[in-house]
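Complex 118.
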Amino acid sequence: MSARAADPSRDPSRPGPTTPVTITVDGEPVTGVLGQSLAGVVMASGRTAWRTTAAGRAPRGLFCGIGVCFDCLVTVDGVRDVRACQRRAVEGAVVTTQAEALPTRVTSDVRAGEVDDA
Ligand code: FES
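Predicted structure with FE2/S2 (inorganic) cluster bound:
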C-alpha cells in the first residue's frame, strides 16, 4: 500500500454527476439518467413487462439483459424490434410497447400474389 493517500475527488471509478433524460413510454413521460438503457428506464418506471408474445400473449420484459434473448423488444422512434436492453436512453426518445401478431397463414393463393380473404 502506498504511503500517499489518493485524493478521492480524483478517483476515476467514482460516478460523476448525472444528466437526466426524459423519454415517453406509450405516451407517458418517464425520467431516467443519460447512459442508462431503455430497459432500465422503463423498469424504473414500474413496468416489468412491455411486450406480449404472439402465441399465448405471454408478457415479456427484461430477461437476459445482454442482448441475447430478444424478450425486451420495443418500438423506438417508429423503428420496431429494438432491444431495450441494448439501446441507451436519449432525450426525447419515443418508446412504444409491442404486441406481436400471429403470422398469417400463407396459402398457395397468397404466394401467387392474391389476397387470402379466408
Ligand atoms: S433482455 Fe434479452 S435481449 Fe434484451
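The first strand starts at residue 20 and ends at 25.
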